[in-house]
Specification:
The protein is of the alpha+beta class. It is built from 27 helices and 30 strands. 34% of the residues lie in helices and 18% in strands. The strands form five sheets. The chain has a ten-stranded mixed sheet, covered by helices on one side. The N terminus is likely disordered.
Length: 927
Amino acid sequence: MARRTPRNALFNRLRTPGRLAGFLKSASVCVLVAGLLSPLAQAPAAAAASNDYCGGQCSDILPPGENGNATLAQILLNQVFGTQPDHAEDQLGPYANLATGYSTLTDAKINNFFNDASFGVASDQVASTEKPAGRSDVTIVRDKKTGVPHITGTTRYGTEFGAGYAAAEDRLWLMDVFRHVGRGQLTAFAGGAASNQGLEQEFYRNAPYTEADLQAQIDNAVANNGARGQQALADANAYLAGINSYIDASDSGRYFPGEYVLTGHKDSITNAGTIDHFKITDLVALGSVIGSLFGAGGGGEVNNAISLIAAQSKYGVEEGTKVWESFRERNDPEAVLTVHNGESFPYAAKPDDAQGEALPDAGSVTQEPLVYDRTGSASTSSATSASATAATTTLSSAKRGMSNALVVSGKYTASGHPIAVFGPQTGYFAPQLLMLQEIQGPGISARGASFAGLSMYVELGRGQDYSWSATTSGQDIIDSYAVELCQDDYHYLYHGTCTAMDKIEQKNAWTPTTADGTAAGSYTMRVWRTKYGPVEYRATVGGKKVAYTTLRSSYMHEADSIIGFQMLNDPDYVKGPQDFQSAAQHINYTFNWFYADSQHTAYYNSGNNPVRATGVDAEFPVWGQAAYEWKNWDPATNTADYTPASAHPNSIDQDYYVSWNNKQAKDYTTAPWGDGSVHRGNLLEDRVKKLVAAGGVTRTSLVKAMADAALADLRAEDVLPKLLKVVNSSTVTDSTAAAAVTKLQTWLTAGAKRTETSAGSKTYANADAIRILDAWWPLLVKAEFEPGLGSDLYTAFGNNLPIDESPSAAHGPTGSHAGSSFQYGWWSYVDKDIRAVLGESVQGGLEQKYCGGGSLSSCRDSLISTLKTAAGMTAAQVYPGDDQCSAGDQWCADSIVQRTLGGIKHGKISWQNRPTFQQVVEYTSHR
């Protein structure tokens, strides 16, 4: 008898939650079962598996729950009555409760808020045992507490077959959705909601692959990796066989995900219709989505050029360049570093004499259209708005960073063993993009999280005596080339020859369904592709017509990283920190990788960092000419020379490591702006540094440090004290301003957290102070910088780096209700400028003083004026409401929503800024 099945409601955007169309729009919002809001009772400890060296001290959590499938009946019950399928949200309550429960945390209570991540399942905790498709070489056991699949195989094929079968049991609908996203075919599959249109456009612009392109990436990854490449291919085929076996079984047994009925792919009465089998190119399409979301650092060169031109127009070339560089903060000496021992890893530095720059003529840049021939609902204002947002997101360097890590050497822990609290911050979805599993078989021994549809290996998790995790790094593996046009707008000069661009198209059409009532519509997505990558902009350079292209080193190499993950899962490969680093070197996406075992910690920054031609500045577009190409670049395969592993930031056994998408190491430039004196990485650095200085770190104290930082308002903790220092430089006589200052100071004294008055109150302590700062920040930044910069340059810099990313902000790379906050903002600029005005020491300061034109009294007047305005704004003005919250509901505006990608809905939880999947580990022994 089949266990579970999916839900219906993808049709909300990945970032900003939207409403489901048709039937689902009017359905009631689900409510959290009260019992789930209480810490779960811990299961009896199981005898440790013989290959488990964690001693019961490995834990993990992944909300909302393991079960991401629901039958049509289960979807309807959820929509009408709020009932939940088994294990659909049983990890949401414990995860949410840490926000109010961490202050009294002890080691004994950790698994009230996390799962026991030991290998195996105690006999009295076995919920089900199955032999998928009747196979004798693999068993899937699911535990009672969370329903996580524990896959054990006696053959490699059987093990991977079981992994595919379990993945389809838990995430079939989601996997189907994302293989269509990766191919630019979401609207035809799931409906034409504006959010679906935007989503498929965002990824198609990044990776416009043909079927031949997808297959070539498989062939190349296999051919270039010897025996491991052949094993990866065999694993992938076994995994696919498992997925397809479940599709056939659920189809004939009529327990397939209900979304297939609601989107018109299956008939609930006759069972007519099909669920297409998965094929190997689907895995590449899925991989391209995940790589684009979390592992493709760089881009933004054209936006950089536009702001540089604006700065030079305002101040002149020499001074304007200095101003631009001071805001860019390429190598800020005050930036928090992951490798903090002073070691230098130069990459993408400003060249002494830039060569080949192709800056556009002022005002000539236009974005290349992606969508053509719109009909019906594709022509609505919401559809065109979604297209604009998708284009902005794709072309910006301010990509989703997310994820954090806190790792402490055993030298500073109470036990003498290293401790790590780390995980990816991948957003909140229903079902979740990641899924938990344990895989034990020949050459594989791991437990942890994997992206649905790519779970032939554990991607983030633990092995027998080690754990690993990642954060997005963001170093620049994307460059922009200006290709001179010839003949017409669709031919360009390549090495002196007029060459036709390739036209890649995807035509999509949709009609209303029960799930998505969006009216019929259609459009064509069209990408013009050159040897230097897809065309993203048009402009003139010195009067010559050019197209600006985008080339990333992982383009056409979406499958390459599979080898690194295969190694990380192999207990015979990873036996210590050096092996871990070697495995991470086989991952071509831009990530920071962290490692801990019972004796050692380690770090490695992955990614294929291209070796650029001498004099090329990675910040700006360069001419598409041989002299400025990556060293030994082959356009046929998009391969080049890459910087050696030793040149990537790396370390073994540093006293501690922190990462929250901050700067990796001295002289290592990342593509996003904002690596300055104030970064959310400081929230971890300050706390972990104190713990290490005191010594005796425990799992409890490190979890507390993470949880405390997760509730902190970065602006309040690190910038507000300096702002108030200016304001209080003389007595505040205005009563409105004085009252606001008192409230802000009281909040600061209380710790500057955004936290409930008590668990479940849905009301913040110090709510007025939080409202005031949320209103004040954009006002004070504008008043501080726009008069000096001028509106054009101020706007241009704002396009490079958003002003703010508070929890309730709907802009920025994550959008509202996404948890992740304070990654991108002008906090460092404000911090450096205010300190300069106060006459304090500033390393790597801005080129000029801006607040009050550098006058302390004028700066104070500006701050008090904007503070008074902010204090007078009502909650409804500061939190205007959206499809999730009524205007003025502060807690709700911040709250985390599990964004529906299927038919099952979940309740909101209070804001936390922490990893979605998270591990707490302390190994007691080693092989």
